[in-house]
Amino acid sequence: MAHPYTPLSLGRRMHEIHTRIMWCLLAGGVLLAGLVSTDAQGVGFARALQTWVQVLLLLAALATLGWGGRLLLQGTAGSAFMGRPLWVCSAVALGGFSVVLALPLRMSEHGSRPALWMELAVNLLLSISLLIVSIDLLSSARRNSPGTVARASQWLYLQSNRAVLTATALLVAVTAVVAQGLVDLDGVRRYLLPLGMLACCAWAALQSRHFAGQSGRWTVLRIAAALAVGAAAILFGAGSHWAMLLEQAAWCYALSVLALVLIMASLRHSLVGWASAHPSRLQGEEWLEQAPIGVVRVDGTGTIVHANRTQLDWLGVPSLVDQPWTEALAPSLRGQAPDWLARLRAGQSLAFEQSIDTPQGLRHFQTDILVAPQGRDAHAFMLLSHDVSMQKLMVGRVQEQQSQLVSLVSAIPDLVVLKGADGRFLHCNQAFERLVGLAHAQIIGRTTSDLGLQGRMPSDWETDLRARNSNTPVVYEETLQFADNGYQGRFEITKSAIRAANGEVTGLLCICRDLAERSRARKEIERLEFFDVLTGLPNRRMLMDRLEWSIIACKQRGTYAALLFIDLDNFKDLNDSLGHQKGDRLLCEVGKRLIASVRSGDVVARFGGDEFVVLVENLGAERNQAEAHVRSVVEHVITRFKQPFALDGQSHHSTPSIGVTVFGDHESLTVQELLKRADLAMYEAKSAGRNTQRFFDPQMQAIVNARANLESDLRQAIHDGELQVYYQPVMNGSGSLVGAEALVRWRHPARGLVMPIEFIDLAEQTGLIVDLGNFVMRTACEQLALWAASPSTQALTMSVNVSPRQFHNQGFVDEVLGIVAQTGANPARLKLELTENLLLGDVNETVNRMRQLKERGVGFSLDDFGVGYSSLAYLKRLPLDQLKIDRSFVSDVLSDVSDAVIVRTILALAQSLELEVVAEGVENSEQVDFLVSNGCKRFQGFHFGRPVPIGEFERLHGFPSLRPA
User: Fold this and answer.
1) Which of 211, 315, 624, 754 has the most CB atoms around its CB within 10 Å?
2) Has residue 282 been placed in a domain?
């Protein structure tokens, strides 16, 4: 049977006894406080209080003697070796001394010095004993199992014999030495020692509250109340005798605590003996404490009396003692607790699953509640919880995988069947259900014969047997007819045995694949692989294969063929205006017209996007004849394109640009080379105005190669610093220099000086114009900053050309302002020259960027004014400072009346808009006179000077060079 005293019940009993003692003291204190008013001098009160305290002292001393003697007998007769611990012996000695103190002979207030020394030593001995016992209580209170309490107590007995005895002897000796030197031993005895004893007792009581759980807090409050009332009674009723009464009260309280501790030690020693006599039961208790399951003991009232470490760790709480048993349940289950408690009291057991949100996350537990009587508590019960979180997780994953597998198998178009070892259907997909005409629930758990399917699956039983006895899948063909729609087809059936680890057959997997469906799937794959999805025409891959075969055939036969590369003009505009759906519709219609324009044996393929390729073969052995035939085909295609295309009720005109290359005879050309030639010819057709054709000429390749080389050289030139900036003067009517225009030149290491007309367009198309323009801008601004340092040149302006691509570059404004800031140039002296084709883009964005720079002082000039067609429409919107009359008008201003009228109109328009005008291309004085007479004040041209390097420019205009040496 279980030991009658558990750690919890032991602590509770201790505090019950101590509480009674405290209430007795409190009652006595209150009684004496009531006598305060009857004795003004406090003498009668002091005597009454002293008598009361001496009675309590006598009772406490007798209790101390009794329990100390019992503990001593247990120590000598018990199974565990205790020796004679110091605190047991001191308790007996203290009890005897207390009896002497409590006798009426102790009424004298003075004694001899040896008696005082002895009293001091005993006082210290009592304090030390209380400290040792409280430490023992504290260490025991932190253990829950009886085994650990028993071992801790035995350890304290064994370890305290030598160490505590030695320490106490030293303390007594020190006390004697100190007492010998004290002058007022009576003051020490009456004031210091009682206060020290009270402090030690209070500390011991506070520590012992851990052993009693939540009830310990009430005990501490009661102790404090008793001390407060007693102190009040002493202060207000004792008069001059309060010091003596303080000493007596301290002794009374100390002896009560010591008696209580001796009771505790005796009971716990009984527990040590029980643990030694029942080692198997003790091991069971320890196992439950450390077991990987949660254990919660609950008494008959539904209050938790113990929870093992595993349960506490799961819930993340330090203790569950004195908590309602529902704290061990999930919140969602606590409403059922009253019903469960009634069933437990009726002797029933419970089992359920619960999910609790723990500090480690949501965990799942399998909990069993068992009736487990404890001593006289017949309704006590126990909760045993197993963590099944991992099992739940694994089950969930398995179910999810099974669900995914079922979904996957159900989506397979083939017939899939899984049979057990006994031939019964375990699973099948929807395709098999359609074959047999039965629902899934009607099939599962039955055999082929049960369902009467021998007619639909005649070879099923025989092939099942073969598959069981074979280590490889059994494959055969059979004709099957579906029950739902009557479809009949030839199927390839594969059966594989499913074996366990020991080789035993546990099932069969059967897959039936429709051979006709496989054939259709193969054709569909080929169609997707070699034909365009949108137009249905051969795609690029098929074209490449056919073109490679055609090259070989032309070599073998000595004949010619032709390749037409067709691109639709302005196809992007159609997509942007009418949408991609109309664009796709146009591509389909173009494919149909191309097929109608060539022979049936020719190949029409969609190359990609809006590009088509036509392969015309068998053009004969004569090249001229072949070219003539191809020309007629091309003209026929262009003619057909003149008819509008009907796009879902809308009429649309589209034109082609066609590039043609003829190949054959014994030419050694690759597929890529042929496509490249046709592509080059197509771009020549676009350059020629579109809606036309061009045949490949070797000169085209030479031009392309030269262009590629020029682009490569230009990139290298920008990187290596081969570009130079030349300056052309801008003069006024009196012939004075007012500014210059910065113009780029390329000093090629092999070709010499390359003019801008040869590479500016290429730079614009390739994007190199951005880096090139930034180089010119930076160089010009550096020179402008140098001119600003000299009074003779600080008024000069600098004009820099800006291309449309450079202007529309994302960071153009920041780039210009950054260069101006870095070089220190005056932005008011900088003019950016823009061309009219810049206005063909987003005008609002153009105006916005110009204004951003205009606000910083940068000026703008519209170059080549009058050549374009859009300048007049936006002239008022642009924040311009200057117009430049194009050289084409100035060169013939004296001989062509129209040019003269245009020049006068431009000058008048500029004057009305308050814009400065610069005439470009001035080559003689007669032109100057005409321009001056019509109000022009700025001139630029060979008449005033050609573009030259900066050194020559400064020399020609008579001011010293400002460049750093």
Assistant:
1) 211
2) no
